[in-house]
Automatic annotation (TrEMBL):
Mg(2+) 4 binds at residues 37, 53, 84. This is Thiamine-monophosphate kinase. One of its GO terms (biological process) is thiamine biosynthetic process. InterPro entries: PurM-like_C_sf, PurM-like_N, PurM-like_N_sf, ThiL-like. It comes from Corynebacterium liangguodongii.
């Protein structure tokens, strides 16, 4: 089933006030660390380092209520941030939420949003430990993720790829963009294609894969948020290498091909430029780590190729269009 839409019923944020909004969030996403001026953490392992990142979701720019629900939006906010932590080879340990919304927003929308966050952070054995709320002209949520990088191995930076390595990936590629295209088309979406829509509403990753990759010898990693070619290009540029992707490993599967046929679109565009899958993409000397698959190789040179040729599609997400 595809669920979309935001509740329009019940008291609004302006009617209940700030403290009731905060109380609703804390009830939906409880944490013993939430309630003071700031959360205090105890290092989980010796010799650990702190990893921090943040991402925003702006109504009308990153999402629209007609294509998602507050619950799924909360889950998606966690995935896009925790994927950044995992891409460093670290383990997410907490999240912090800053929320701006019109006073006319029903309290139930915020309650469902917080429940979605709680649902997803729970999959990582994490908690929402604090944040802030304020009024604004549109719904904006900014989630910050905090992670722990243990041990003496270096983090998985963009500059860590080396010639002779293989390129590996964990997660679907092209699903989120295909799901969004289906929703935007207004077409009747076949049940078989629901997984694509669900991938847009909340991409799926297996917790801990970045940690596993780092332990298995990966040296560089990023996540596919702005489009595969664009994100891999950043990795290649920072590492001063050429990355050659394998079309056989990236070829659109049956779901993507079916969506492409339904919409009259080339599914390769979703694979190469779609983004928002938050697929973990890294490089390693040895075999692909558990949960990863090989999608290319690293060579001397610069740029990104597909089967030694220029990619058919190279666009990606641009924040200021």
């Amino acid at each position: 089933m595809i669920r979309t839409g935001f509740s329009a019923a019940g008291p609004t944020l302006a009617e209940v006030g700030e403290y009731e909004v905060i109380r609703a969030i804390r009830q939906a996403a409880p944490s013993a660390l939430n309630g003071d001026d700031a959360a205090v953490f105890t290092p989980s392992v010796p010799n650990s380092r702190v990893v921090a990142t943040t991402d925003m979701l702006v109504e009308g720019r990153h999402f629209t209520p007609e294509f998602t629900t507050p619950f799924d939006l909360g889950r998606k906010a966690v995935v896009q941030n925790f994927a950044d932590v995992e891409a460093m080879g670290a383990r997410p340990i907490a999240a912090v939420l800053a929320l701006s919304a019109p006073g006319s927003t029903p309290l139930e929308v915020v309650r469902e949003l917080a429940a979605g966050i709680q649902s997803k952070v729970g999959e990582y054995s994490c908690e929402l430990v604090g944040g802030d709320v304020t009024s604004g002209e549109q719904l904006v949520l900014s989630l910050s993720a905090i992670g722990s990088l243990g041990g003496s191995l270096p983090p998985l930076r963009l500059a860590g790829a080396r010639a002779g390595q293989r390129v590996v990936a964990h997660g679907n590629i092209g699903y989120s963009a295909a799901g969004l295209a289906l929703l935007q088309s207004g077409a009747q979406i076949p049940t078989a294609l629901y997984p694509l829509v669900h991938a847009y509403q909340c991409p799926q990753l297996t917790p801990g894969r970045g940690l596993i990759a780092r332990a298995a010898g990966a040296t560089a990693m990023t996540d596919n948020s702005d489009g595969l070619v664009r994100d891999v290009s950043a990795l290649a540029s920072q590492s001063n290498v050429l990355i050659d992707l394998y079309s056989a490993a990236l070829a659109p599967d049956e779901l993507l091909c079916a969506a492409g046929e339904l919409l009259g679109e080339d599914p390769w565009a979703w694979v190469l430029t779609g983004g928002e899958d938050h697929t973990l993409v890294g490089t390693t000397e040895g075999d692909a780590p558990v949960g990863f698959r090989t999608i290319g190789s690293v060579r001397k040179g610069s740029g990104v190729l597909v089967d030694a040729l220029e990619p058919a599609y190279t666009d990606g997400w641009e924040s200021f269009l």
